[in-house]
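<instruction>
Derive structure tokens from the sequence
<data>
Labelled lines for chain and fold
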Amino acid sequence: MNSSLFNQIVEPDVLARPSTEVAIDLLGCSLVRQLPDGQILRGTIVETEAYAPGDPAFHAYRRLTPRNQVLFGLAGRAYIYLIYGMYHCFNIVTDREGVPSAVLIRALQFESLPVGIDIAGKIHTIAAGPGKLCRILQIDRSLNGTILQPGEPLWLEHRRPEFQQQIDRHVTIVQTTRIGL
């Protein structure tokens, strides 16, 4: 990936591909959140999970409903849902309009943290899980359907050159099957 892409926005057309492809390409990209007070938080995406048509664990598996209609829309939007009545999960809608497909962002490594967060040496695990990262980034259902672009509360930036160099040199990206179904 070209180093001139650092801090360049990931445009929706880049995301208009199957989630299984996009999930890999999102690794190393930055998820950026502008909080209501103007504070900007950045985290490097370090774990993703792809959901595609035909997947029984996917919210769009059976049919379009009011809850999942964002998944059938344009790529580059946020799909946010609540699990266990208390944890939010943030997904990025992918593929072409009408084809439900999304990538769950499972973990981030923060580049910056909100003021007042006591990390107690746990910067690498503070967002190790979909619910944790949503709590820190203050992502909830009010952001469902948000277009991921600057000027909105959430957007994506291309990989940092250092991350790409690590991949090129010695980092192995592991792809596994989902368990628990």
